[in-house]
Amino acid sequence: MELNKRIAGHLLKIQAVFFRPEEPFTWASGIQSPVYCDNRLTLSDPAVRTDVEEGLRSLIETHYPAAEALMGTSTAGIAHAAITAHLMGLPMGYVRAGAKDHGRRNQIEGRLLPGQKVVVVEDLISTGGSVIEVVEILRAAGAEVLGVVSIFTYGMQKGLKRLADAKVENHSLTDFDTVARLAAAEGYIRPEDVQRLLRFRDCPEDPAWREI
Predict the structure, then answer these.
(1) Among 131, 138, 180, which residue's Cα sits nearest to residue 160?
(2) Model's pTM, two decimal places?
(3) How far apart are CA 143 and CA 111, in angstroms?
(4) C-alpha torsion sign, points 45, 36, 8, 59
(5) Residues 6+ apart with CB under 8 A from 56
(6) What backbone torsions phi and psi does residue 56 show, to the nearest 5 degrees?
(7) Are 60 and 80 in contact (CB under 8 A)?
(8) SS (H, E, C) 15-84
(9) N-terminal to C-terminal alpha carbon distance within the chain
(10) Cys staple from 193: which of 115, 120, 154, 189, with CB 3.0 to 4.6 Å?
(11) 152-157 long-range contacts, CB within 8 A, separation 24+
């Protein structure tokens, strides 16, 4: 089975990606969302965790063979960056959401050398804002950021445009479209829900996606 479908199946099985179009979740922004994502759950299942970390390693080796270090996003990307870096024999660190207010006041944890070729490890990409901020912090510190790898991406137009504008390349193990179609095929949702979900992906702010 193709990697993106295998990972999608894992995420559905462990409810790391959970669809509820009839009873939407509310995001912090107030948007009503038919999907809930918690890729931290992949860490609790050894078989899924192995597939995810081996998959991230494969993405890095394929797209960023010159990588010299991995940097996780805080906090969800830290564990994945650490495990994948261990598999690859690479240094690892992570970027805090904000600088510490004590000690050395670090925002980047771990050793980062000037000019070091870095890949950022993220758990999911939605609008792209948080991972772009991490990339910009690393660039400001002198790193050469080759790109990003992530477990899951929504593929939202806003996120794709922001990443392109910031010159940030991302490769994900699986995506919203693949998970939604597999969810319908395996009976997690109704087949007619797929188009509603894809309408949500195209314009999350528009409540019209809830109409069948």
Answers:
(1) 131
(2) 0.94
(3) 11
(4) negative
(5) 80, 84, 121, 149, 151, 173
(6) -65, -40
(7) no
(8) CCEEECCCCCEECCCCCEECEEECHHHHHHCHHHHHHHHHHHHHHHHHHCCCCCEEEEECCHHHHHHHHH
(9) 31
(10) 189
(11) 152/7, 152/11, 152/17, 152/37, 152/39, 152/123, 152/124, 152/125, 152/176, 152/179, 153/124, 153/125, 153/126, 154/124, 154/125, 154/126, 154/201, 155/201, 156/126, 156/127, 156/201, 156/202, 156/204, 157/202
pLDDT at 103: 44
Q: Which amino acid is at 120?
A: V
Enumerate the β-bridge partners of residue 168. Answer: none
Largest CA distance in the chain: 55
Distances (CA, A) of 12 to 30, 73, 120, 137: 24, 23, 25, 33
211 neighbors 41 (Cβ within 8 angstroms): no
Instruction: Give the three-class secondary structure for 158.
Output: helix
Contact 189, 183 (CB under 8 A): yes
Using CA atoms of 62, 63, 69, 72 in order, give the dihedral in degrees to the nearest 10. -110
Mean pLDDT over each residue of the chain, to the nearest integer: 93
Tell me how long the chain is. Answer: 212
Give residue 207's identity as a one-letter amino acid code: P
pLDDT tens digit sequence for 5-33: 999 999 999 999 999 999 999 987 788 99
The encoded tokens of residue 117 equal 């070729």
Instruction: Give the whole-angstrom CA distance, residue 10 versus residue 185.
Output: 14
Q: What's the confidence (pLDDT) of residue 98?
A: 64
Residue segments in the chain with a per-residue pLDDT below the cut of 70: 98-105, 212
